[in-house]
Structure formats: C-alpha cells, structure tokens
Design brief:
The complex is a heterodimer of chains A (about 190) and B (about 280). Chain A has about 190 residues and is of the alpha/beta class. Chain A is built from six helices and seven strands; from the N terminus they run E-H-E-H-E-E-H-E-H-E-H-E-H. Chain B is globular. Classes of the chains: A alpha/beta (about 190), B alpha+beta (about 280). At the A-B interface, strand 1, strand 3, helix 3, helix 4 and helix 5 of A face strand 1, helix 1, strand 7 and helix 12 of B.
Chain lengths: ~190, ~280
C-alpha cells in the first residue's frame, strides 16, 4: 500500500477539522474518542487529540490527512506527525490577525523540523474584515513574493475548495521532487 | 488598502515591523479603547516607503506649526507666509530650512518631539484599535523632512517601556529556542544587556538557558528577545513540551522509519482524482 501523509495544521479555529472532514471518504476520526488502524500507524496509543481522514483513490494507494492538535502547544504528537509527513497545509483565518503570530510560530516550528513542501490555505478570505493575501503573507514573514510557498484561498466546508488546495499542494510536492531529482542528476554528472 | 485590528491581537511592534518590511506608505491610526490611557484620543503615524515621516494627534495639518510656535522659533502667520514660497508637496520642515527660517538641529528636535516622545506611551496602551490606510495622502504640512526606521523606533519604545503587562502574553516562551535571522554586521545599535543576550543566541539554547548563563531573570531575557523579534533579528522556535509521554507502549521503530518517496504514478493518480472531486462537486 502506497500512502502519502499530509499534515493539516494552523491556529485554533482555522478550519483544520472541517478541512479534513470535507474531503475524507471515511468519517473523520478524532482520535481523542476513537482509534483506527491508520492512526495506530503513526502512534500506537491513540489517546491523543488529532483528526484523521483518508482518501483511497485506487486499490493500493491512499492519501492520509492528519490534523494537528488545536492548542498552541507543541507536544510529542506534533513531532511525530511532522516527521512522518510528506507535506503540510497551514490554514490561517484571513480575518483574525490575532492568529498570525500563532501561525508564524507554527511555521517556524515546522520549518526547523522538516524540510517538506507546504501550502498556505487562507480561510474566511471573503469576510469583510479579512486582510488581503499580500498583507497576510507579510505578517507571516514572507517579505518577497518570489520566495514563498503556494498560497490559495480555502473554504474548508466546500469539497471543491479543499480538493483544489490539496491539488496545489500535490503539484508543489511534485515540483519539489523534480527539483531534487534534477539536483541529484546534476551531482551525478559532476 | 485598509487593515484594521486590535493591539491585543497584533501588537504595535508587530505592526511597525509589518509596515517597515512591507515598505508601506499611508497613515496608521491608533485609538486607545480605555479612555484612562494617558494619551490622546487618536494618534496618527505616517509612513512613506516603510519609514516614519511624521506623527500627529489630529488631522488638521497644523500641529507642526503649533510645535514651532510653542518653542518660540516662529509665529504661525510667519510660518504660513514662508510656506507659500515653497513648491507643493514640499515638506514644511525642509521648506522652512531652505528659506533659512529653521536649521537642521531645530528640525531634529521637532521630529524627536513629534515622533519619539509619545512612543513609550503608545507601547503601553492596554488596548487599542488600529487602522492602517494606505490611501491616506501624506501630510506635507506636518513633515519635517526627516524619517526614522519603525524598527529603531520600536526598539527605542520597548526599551523605555515600564509596564509590560499588555505584552506579557506576546513574549517568547522561556522554553523556546531562538534563532538568528541576521548574520554579520548588526543593523541596530544594541545596549550592553541586549548584546550579551545576542551573543548567546546560537540556535540551540532556550531562553531560560540563556538567562541561566547570564544569571539574569528569565523575564528580562524574554523581553530582550521580544525586542529582537519585533525588529526582525531573531525567530522563536517553540520547544516540544515535555509533558507526560502520551504513548503508553511506543514502538521505537516507528520514529526511525524513513519517510518513503511518493511515486510519480501515485501523484498523477491523486491529482486526477482530486480534479475529479472538483468537477463532481
């Protein structure tokens, strides 16, 4: 079975659980309440707060989605999740500037633990109080528009929107993989 | 473009960094929510390409004239007469200097009074509402022609701050590691205490470890690190909390298993599937 693991993270209330529930083909599991074989693959004891969703799109191929615990505290679960992940989505509420500091803190945590492709999903972008995307990126510390991860608006309650965000992340992963392959080929030629 | 919020959500230091790094032009308005805050009912700071060019407590375009008159340097009618000789979009300060009515030192004093003096009070506002309006025209009548880096102003303001209560929940955590974002020559002049902390920031020590090395209070090191964060010199990397292990019977090999590469066919299949989801919805 080939499995791709994606971590969905973000400040409290950014829409992580909704994001996973919207796209998951199984009922998304909050592992606080229920254990599954899939979550056990990441952690043997399942009394941890974590959302889990799955998309099986072929006989032996599946995408697993793991939501990070909501509170702003980085415990062992975070560490295990990020080290097992192939890529991650950072969800940020566009209309909650009070969350930008937390999002930035999560970004720093992730960046220093794993060099994996990522995508920023901006939720509530249609809210009248929403900050423009450019300003949010600046608040998250991305000063140059040429050196930032892919960013898309996300409605965590709409399948189309979540699928679109995931597709953008998969494309980013593929680009990253290709760049790494090119680098290895170049090294081999030298 | 207008952005709004509360200082409890996005602190003044963070706003200054945001406007400086984004090289913004416009007007930042701050209104204390609590009228007991010892400051004007509104406070306006004007930015030009990320630098502070003027600060006022009203938008009547006459505050600089009043400051000059109050110091006894020129009378308001005289200022207005001289200003008529200057081209449009010339700052009042430079205009008066060009005409020989004021000198550079006087402009510096005015700028300091206008911009620097209220800063500690602004940083100590318990709660305030802010708005940044990028479409607000520059008030040339209020400008001395001098500029200041918001980062330096924030650094100066935070150094002078006595009551840190409004910022306590924004300080980096004692258990966090701090990492340098700038290397080589320091862009800001640090005081002795700051420099000592800076010397200990090596990407491995936590704030509490730095405090222990320096035999300083953790809170004092947190405050210095907060200043560094505001001016973009360091980044906080939160530690993994050493809570009771959640795993009752961990399988150690799970932590050491490598993350396998995803095959091209997998990615292709997944993308096709997600596009199908999009179309089906």
């Amino acid at each position: 079975m080939e499995i791709m693991r994606i971590v969905v993270t973000g400040p409290v209330g950014a829409g992580k659980s909704s994001f996973i529930r919207t796209i998951s083909e199984i009922e998304a599991v909050d592992t606080d309440r229920k254990a599954t074989d899939e979550t056990a693959a990441l952690k043997t004891k399942t009394t941890v707060a974590m959302d889990f969703g799955r998309l099986q799109f072929g006989q032996n191929v599946a995408l697993h989605l793991y939501g990070t615990p909501g509170q702003e505290r980085f415990d062992f679960m975070w560490d295990i999740l990020i080290r097992k992940a192939h890529a991650f989505v950072l969800l940020v509420s566009s209309h909650r500037p009070q969350d930008f500091r937390s999002a930035r803190r999560i970004l720093a945590f992730m960046r220093h633990r794993a060099k994996i492709p990522m995508l920023i999903g901006l939720s509530h972008a249609d809210n009248p109080a929403a900050w423009p995307m450019e300003e949010i990126m600046l608040a998250l510390g991305y000063l140059s528009p040429h050196n930032r991860p892919p960013t898309v608006p996300v409605n965590a309650l709409e399948t189309t929107s979540v699928a679109n965000a995931l597709a953008a992340l998969i494309e980013a992963y593929a680009r990253d993989q290709m760049a790494e392959l090119n680098r290895l080929n170049k090294d081999a030629l030298i | 473009m207008k952005i709004t919020g509360y200082l409890s959500e996005f602190s003044l230091g963070e706003i200054f960094r945001f406007l400086a790094q984004g090289q913004k032009t416009g007007c930042l308005t701050i209104k204390p929510v609590d009228p007991r805050d010892e400051i004007a009912s509104e406070y306006h700071t004007f930015f030009h390409h990320g630098n502070i060019v003027a600060s006022t407590i009203s938008l009547d375009h006459q505050e600089l004239q009043r400051l000059i008159a109050k110091r006894g340097w020129l009378r308001i009618p005289t200022i207005q007469k001289i200003a008529q000789l200057c081209p449009p979009r010339a700052t009042l300060g430079l205009c008066l200097k060009t005409q020989g009515a004021l000198d550079g030192e006087q402009l510096k004093l005015l700028f300091k009074q206008q911009v620097l003096t209220p800063i500690p009070q602004l940083f100590s506002i318990e709660e305030g509402w802010f708005e940044f309006d990028a479409n607000h025209p520059l008030p040339y009548e209020e400008m001395t022609g001098l500029t200041a880096s918001p980062m330096e102003i924030a650094l100066a303001g935070l150094r002078l701050l006595r009551d840190w209560t409004p910022l306590l929940d924004k300080l980096p955590l004692p258990s966090s590691t701090v990492i340098r974002l700038i290397h080589g020559e320091l862009p800001y002049h640090l005081n002795q205490g700051e420099y000592q902390v800076w010397e200990h920031i090596d990407g491995t020590l936590s704030i509490e470890q730095i405090a222990a090395h320096l035999e300083q209070l953790v809170l004092d090191v947190q405050k210095i690190c907060f200043r560094f964060m505001v001016i973009g010199m360091i980044e906080e990397v939160a530690a993994i909390t050493s809570v009771e292990p959640l795993v009752a019977n961990p399988e150690p090999e799970m932590d050491t298993l490598p993350v396998s590469e995803i095959s091209h066919s997998f990615l292709h299949g997944l993308l096709t599937f997600l596009k199908g989801k999009k179309n089906a919805a």
